[in-house]
Design brief:
The complex is a heterotrimer. By secondary structure, chain A is α+β, with helices and mostly antiparallel strands. Chain A has 7 helices and 12 strands. Chain A has a 4-stranded mixed sheet with strand order 8-1-10-9. A two-stranded antiparallel sheet of chain A has the order 2-3. Chain B has one domain: Formate dehydrogenase/DMSO reductase fold, CATH 1.20.1630.10. In chain B, helix 1 crosses helix 6. The radius of gyration of chain B is 21 Å and the shape is globular. The interface between A and C is large, with 63 and 82 residues. The structure holds ligand MGD (2 copies), iron/sulfur cluster (5 copies) and molybdenum atom.
């Protein structure tokens, strides 16, 4: 998946699309749009960052799952088998991106799996379909003719926390460095309903 | 980059995946491993005066280790599926080797205890030799659970398993000291005065050994923090979190001061012959190690990843 | 249905990009149409296709095409209609969360009759027949003075059925609330080029001047327009310059951002126009041909608005005004973009006219990439249509000569002053207690049965307004009813969109067509002859029978199948004014004799907002803005939206906050200053509801706001509208019947962040005397820390 931050308007349509498509309960999110604001008045700007599971090529979550409930499909999508997961939550602790959550109704771990059921049926993921400005593009990177390959070939892209060597498969065009890092030193968490649900 | 004028207007963080159950579990495996090692040392040395200690610890080790995984299972969202761990194992996951170790080790521990009680010294020694690496693994793997969660800077260090082991020794000895002291004071009326004096000396020696282990533990923690503070940004944050953040009171106050410094002073200082002081020190040590498990498990997850 | 392979899907993706190609706007849609066969979705577990029905979203005025996916007669998902010209398969957060409104556990599903006093919220469930009888009994005696039946809705322009109901009863008092949204803009554009509204062709332009509009967050055509704006600035590399009082999603994408003093757009725009005329960068030929006064006259009028004078008033540097003006005039095509809320000041109508002048003098009028006339089908009511009764003082207040039927706040005033006696008031799709200025005053009025003897609320939800009714008629939500939805097309090719039930009405809820028909047939007295349709489909067929192309395509059946119709071969007909504008002179009325006649300045002009002159050190201007997550009063019962946006701390610039001793997160009190009333149409503060003078909230310190302005988001802080809108958890054991949803147990935000405050409670009703639109923007406040 490629997310073009030059097109993203921070509208959260993707967030709600996922809630609807995946029946994601309240309190948890498989995807969300991080928003940071920086710079002094009057040059302050906002930067958006839709975040979701990177369906990594080298997923730590899969490596650390003790039951093989998390596994990688042949096409590279990382999924959780809901019948096998024992909900030890170790994959959540292992993932560098905080994109996994416990489904409070089912007591199993879930995350974005690139809408595998839609992709299998030849459809785009729900978030991609809903995006008003077509900031998200999904496709097969190994197919040279796909739109996504062309985008990747003609633009500089970055991934989240490259140093984790998970080889993320969500690429950002023009992603903002601050939004992409989680170096929260001195950062002030506030405003439009920031949801920080740390449960001890 | 100077982040002081950055406002995170919106983000989502998920609940902490690993909670108190896990910290508690780490604590109990630590106690068990520590007890077992002491028991084996006592058995190996074969000295008569060590015998009671060897016996107590031989019982404690498997009992503690049966309590420990109960915490784990209670923590599972799907406790009834715990058997998946054995049927769908994944050898790259530390939890998988943990689940096998957690099965083998108590079985071995029970047999060992039987050997100890039935005075089959050689068998006990052999089992002890096999058992020590197992005990070390059982506890060491818990360190690996944290260390292999690469994203969490506080955990992701090669020192983590060793830190866990050493602190396990500390708390294990502390626990044994308390049990032995209680036994000495109230339940051991039969032995001679001379024997009691010997036993008391032994407890004091054990406590001193504990103090030296604390030193080693402190050395490891200090070096870990020094490295954290000089490594990449997340690591720096992790270091600062426990030194100056929310968890600082627990880390510096409980783990380091109450749990390490005070016991060392009590055990090595003027009160070094005072059994009450030693017992207090040992209890404090255990509180400190419990705090350490808490700081590590919770603290490691407090830094947002998103 | 033809199954789609992965290859096709990639092709569709490619078609998606082709859509962005500026050349061919329309035919790729037809391609996607063929391929997608109306959109698809599959069950997540079984992978089986879901059944679907296209319809139209009305969670906001944009009217996007949706597809309702249904499993076992339950709506499981709302997706975008790929065939729809406006949104082209995309949907915003609110559109997708509409499912939460449909299954709101607190929906009203049987007619209710008040027991106990008004507003005590004690109700008896009654049968529909009894409800109709009761309303008929109240309305029949009014037959001799039908004007005493008053019908109020927010968007009268799109409520043909509501008008039909009132008119067939003989009442001209079908009232809309344009005065609380884009009223001034509608009047300004109508006066200038003879059509209400505009549609900047942003996808094809090279330069966009934005005045106080925020289309990447809220816009009357949100999804379609935001897409086109991004196409413009990203694919077409148009330069965008934004004038606003705060940092918005739009200004963050702009090349240049200027923070203007509130209420001063007009002088900035006029000074730019002056520069353009002075430098000779204007399009003289266009002005000569199409403006109703000469270039010379325009230049002479504008010469008073020097950049220096504008700089002093607006705070925008004179050199910047010069440079931006020059760039705007020398880039072609170029357009301005100003929306609903540019006009929410006492001088709003003139603000809007000043901005339009920039397009007129540069010839950027209805050209490719310029400011275009809105393209929207004007569908007549079906035959037999009732005669439109003569205007009444309520529908056309004498002191607001240009604000026909839409100055609802003035109507409230006339009722309050007993200038008009109401017999029965019917409110529908309108929640004035929450939305209107001085909502507290509206609530007081609704509680007083000497002013409103009978209040019938047609509403699916127990809103703050419905709670003050005598009878509540539970209408279905938009997902269970029928209507034709026409909107100005962002693609400049007009379309007709159908709203049809994607699921049958829940329990006893009834669509408004059925309610109106049954009522008319119970009331009788002649109105029943206008409600003799066999079915709603017959009625809708009557409304589209004269749309040529549609009839050929299959009429209503085509709409039922595809959800939307537009002429697939037509392209934007730029220069559609070729035969002249629909103004008295047939030209662009830079000089408006209508304004002159009514005693207003006939030329685009700048009049400072009196309340803003010499603000003291601690006086700040309050701005209320819309967000991408909530629409006004409409969406707060959608939990997926509330989870993202549920409170509205007041934005304060850190420099200002420091002076006031306020820190981020502090509890603060926002107090309306008495000078607020010193508007262009003055309001006596001492006459205003004293309860509604201040509100409490928390402070949000941000570098993204003018130091003299504070801002709060609209759409949260409900005191009615059900438990979800108020952030209340619904515990497991409470009975919600068929609407039970375990998610309602997980509502978390009220405890953690609170549910915000409705900022409109401290806004008095103040109208621009020209357009009659509310001067929301003219509120002066002080902000102080609440000491604990
Ligand atoms: N996503 C979304 N779309 C919507 C709606 C919604 O709530 N959400 N609501 C719908 C409705 S009903 C309407 S009427 C329209 C409204 O759509 P808009 O007219 O775009 O309304 P706002 O976003 O409220 O106001 C636009 C901008 O005006 C700025 N502003 C306020 N005062 C001043 C001033 O004095 N000077 C300048 N220069 N700028 C100022 C505000 O900061 C804000 O950014 O949108 C419709 N579409
Ligand atoms: N200060 C300030 N005040 C403002 C604004 C501002 O920017 N600043 N914005 C103004 C604007 S632009 C607007 S448009 C108004 C909006 O004012 P309103 O018209 O009051 O609000 P709406 O959001 O249109 O929703 C009206 C009601 O319709 C109900 N409803 C939804 N669907 C249906 C249906 O199918 N049938 C019926 N009968 N009811 C239904 C909803 O529950 C809601 O309570 O608020 C205005 N108020
Ligand atoms: S839907 Fe698209 S534009 Fe909106 S926040 Fe998501 S990626 Fe950005
Ligand atoms: S982002 Fe996290 S959960 Fe997703 S595949 Fe990578 S490591 Fe696993
Ligand atoms: S929670 Fe489930 S998916 Fe995650 S590691 Fe444990 S068993 Fe695997
Ligand atoms: S791809 Fe599907 S599952 Fe993943 S974030 Fe998008 S909608 Fe959610
Ligand atoms: S823009 Fe308005 S009409 Fe379109 S999907 Fe969003 S809420 Fe619905
Ligand atoms: Mo509006």
């Amino acid at each position: 998946m490629v997310i073009d931050m030059r097109r993203c308007i921070g509208c959260h349509a993707c967030t709600v699309a996922c809630k609807a498509e995946m029946a994601v309960p309240l309190q948890v999110n498989a995807t969300w749009v991080k928003i940071v604001e920086k710079g002094p008045y009057p040059s302050a700007r906002r930067f958006y960052l839709p975040r979701l599971c990177n369906n990594c090529t080298n997923p730590i979550c899969v490596r650390n799952c003790p039951t093989q409930a998390s596994y990688k499909r042949d096409d590279g999508i990382v999924v959780v088998d809901p019948h096998r997961c024992i909900c030890c939550k170790y994959c959540i602790a292992s993932c560098p991106y905080d994109v996994r959550y416990v489904n409070p109704f089912k007591e199993i771990v879930e995350k974005c799996y690139f809408c595998q059921h839609r992709v299998d049926a030849g459809l785009e993921p729900a978030c991609v379909e809903s995006c008003p400005t077509r900031a998200m593009v999904f496709g097969d990177r190994n197919d040279d003719k796909s739109e996504i390959s062309q985008l990747l070939a003609s633009n500089a892209t970055t991934v989240l926390k490259k140093e984790m060597e998970t080889e993320p498969n969500v690429y950002y065009i023009a992603g903002d460095e601050t939004a992409m890092s989680n170096d929260e030193k001195g950062i002030n968490y506030r405003a439009e309903g920031a949801f920080i649900n740390l449960r001890l | 980059m100077d982040n002081t004028d950055v406002n995170v207007v919106y983000s989502v963080q998920h609940q902490l995946p690993l909670v108190m159950y896990i910290a508690q579990y780490f604590f109990f495996t630590g106690l068990s491993a520590g007890s077992f090692v002491i028991s084996v040392v006592a058995t190996m040395l074969g000295r008569k005066e060590f015998k009671p200690i060897g016996r107590i610890t031989a019982v404690l080790a498997p009992v503690l280790l049966i309590i420990a995984p109960l915490n784990l299972i209670a923590d599972l969202g799907q406790p009834l599926r715990f058997w998946h761990l054995f049927f769908f194992y994944n050898w790259t996951s530390p939890i998988t080797y943990g689940s096998f170790l957690l099965t083998l080790y108590p079985i071995m521990g029970i047999i060992y205890a039987i050997m100890v009680f039935t005075n089959r010294g050689t068998a006990a020694k052999i089992l002890g030799i096999i058992g020590v690496p197992l005990a070390i693994s059982v506890h060491g793997y818990t360190g690996f659970i944290l260390a292999l969660a690469k994203a969490r800077a506080l955990w992701n260090t090669a020192a983590m398993p060793t830190i866990f082991l050493v602190s396990a020794m500390v708390s294990g000895i502390g626990f044994v000291v308390v049990v032995a002291a209680v036994r000495w004071k109230w339940f051991d009326k039969k032995t001679t005065e001379e024997q009691r004096a010997k036993d008391k000396r032994l407890i004091i020696q054990l406590a001193q050994f504990m103090a030296y282990t604390i030193m080693l533990d402190l050395f490891l923690i200090v070096s870990d923090i020094l490295v954290l503070l000089t490594a990449h940004a997340d690591a720096y944050q992790a270091g600062m979190l426990i030194l100056t953040g929310n968890l600082a009171p627990i880390f510096l106050g409980v783990e380091i001061f109450l749990g390490s410094i005070v016991p060392m002073v009590l055990v090595l200082g003027p009160t070094r012959k005072n059994l009450t002081a030693i017992v207090i020190a040992s209890i404090l040590v255990n509180i400190g190690v419990y705090a350490m498990r808490f700081v590590m498990v919770i603290g490691g997850q407090t830094i947002p990843l998103s | 249905m033809r199954s789609i392979t992965r290859r096709d899907f990639l092709k569709i993706g490619a078609a998606g990009t082709a859509l962005l190609a500026i050349e061919s706007q329309l035919h790729p849609i037809a391609q996607a149409m063929e391929m997608m066969d109306g959109g698809r979705s599959v069950n997540r577990v079984s992978g089986l296709p879901r059944s679907f029905l296209p319809s139209t979203c009305t969670q906001c005025p944009a009217g996007c095409g949706i597809i309702g996916y249904v499993e076992e007669s339950k709506l499981v998902k709302i997706g975008g209609n790929p065939k729809h010209l406006s949104n082209q398969s995309a949907l915003c957060a609110r559109g997708q969360a509409g499912i939460n409104a449909l299954y709101d556990p607190d929906r009203i599903l049987t007619p209710l009759k008040r027991v106990g006093g008004r507003g005590e919220n004690r109700w008896a469930k009654i049968k529909w027949d009894q409800a109709y009888e009761e309303v008929a009994k109240a309305m029949q005696p009014l037959k001799s003075q039908p004007g005493r039946f008053v019908y109020m809705t927010e968007d009268l322009g799109h409520d043909t059925l509501g008008k039909r109901f009132a008119y067939s009863f003989g009442s001209g008092n079908a009232l809309g609330a344009a005065s609380i949204f884009g009223g001034n803009k509608q009047v300004a554009t109508q006066l200038t080029w003879g059509a209400a509204g505009d549609m900047p062709d942003v996808a094809n332009t090279k330069y966009i001047l934005v005045f106080g509009a925020n289309p990447l967050e809220s816009h009357p055509q949100f999804v379609g327009f935001a897409r086109r704006l991004i196409e413009g600035v990203q694919d077409n590399q148009a330069k965008m310059v934004v004038f606003d009082v705060r940092l918005t999603n739009t200004s963050t994408r702009a090349n240049e951002v200027y923070y203007v003093n509130p209420g001063t757009y007009a002088i900035v725009a006029l000074a730019m126009a002056n520069v353009i005329m002075q430098e000779g960068l204007h399009n003289a030929a266009f002005i000569d041909q199409w403006a109703n006064i000469s270039s010379g006259d325009i230049a002479a009028h504008l010469s008073q608005f020097t950049p220096e004078k504008a700089a002093a008033a607006s705070g925008v540097d004179a050199a910047a005004i010069r440079r931006v003006a020059t760039e705007f005039a020398s880039t072609s095509p170029a357009t301005t973009l100003s929306d609903g809320l540019v006009s929410v000041h006492g001088n709003g109508t003139q603000n809007e006219r000043a901005v339009m002048l920039l397009n007129i003098i540069t010839g950027n009028i209805d050209n490719r990439g310029g400011l275009c006339l809105p393209r929207e089908f004007n569908l007549p009511d079906a035959d037999p249509a009732p005669a439109v009764p003569a205007p009444t003082p309520l529908s056309n207040p004498a002191d607001l000569p240009l604000a026909s039927q839409q100055a609802i706040d003035r109507s409230w005033q006339l009722i309050r002053d007993r200038k008009h006696r109401v017999g029965v008031l019917m409110t529908r799709s309108y929640n004035p207690v929450y939305s209107d200025p001085d909502g507290g005053g509206v609530a007081d009025l609704l509680k007083d049965d000497t002013m409103v003897p009978i209040h019938v609320a047609v509403s699916p939800f127990m809103t703050e307004t419905a709670a003050l009714a005598d009878i509540v008629l539970p209408e279905t939500t938009y997902l269970e009813g029928w209507d034709l939805e026409v909107r100005p097309s962002p693609e400049l090719v007009p379309f007709i969109s159908l709203r049809q039930p994607v699921v049958p009405p829940l329990k006893d809820a009834r669509p408004f067509f059925e309610i109106a028909t049954s009522l008319a047939n119970t009331i009788k007295g002649g109105m029943e002859q206008y409600f003799g349709f066999k079915s709603v489909e017959d009625y809708l067929k009557g409304r589209i029978q004269n749309v040529g192309g549609l009839a050929a395509a299959g009429g209503l059946d085509y709409l039922k199948q595809h959800g939307v119709w537009f002429n697939p071969r037509s392209k934007p007909d730029y220069g559609s004014f070729g035969g002249g504008f629909s103004t008295p002179s047939g030209k662009l009325e830079v000089y408006s004799s209508v304004l002159k006649d009514k005693g207003f300045s006939p030329l685009p002009d700048y009049e400072p907002v009196p309340a803003f002159s010499s603000l003291s050190k601690d006086e700040l201007v309050l701005t209320i803005f819309d967000t991408a997550i909530q629409t006004d009063a409409k969406t707060a019962n959608c939990m997926w939206l509330d989870e993202i946006l549920h409170n509205n701390p007041v934005w304060i610039n850190p420099a200002t906050a420091e002076q006031l001793g306020i820190k981020d997160g502090d509890k603060v009190r926002v107090v309306r200053a008495a000078r607020t009333g010193q508007g262009i149409s003055p309001v006596d503060d001492s006459q205003l509801n004293p309860r509604a003078r201040s509100l409490e909230t928390t402070a949000f310190l941000t570098e993204g706001i003018h130091p003299r302005v504070v801002a709060m988001a609209n759409g949260v802080g409900h005191t009615g509208f059900g438990r979800i809108a108020q952030g209340e958890k619904i515990s497991k054991d409470e009975e919600s019947g068929a609407l039970k949803n375990p998610n309602t147990e997980l509502v978390w935000w009220r405890e953690k962040d609170g549910i915000g405050t409705n900022p409109k409670t401290i806004v008095p009703a103040m109208a621009d005397p020209v357009g009659g639109g509310q001067a929301w923007g003219d509120v002066v406040v002080t902000v102080g820390k609440i000491k604990e």
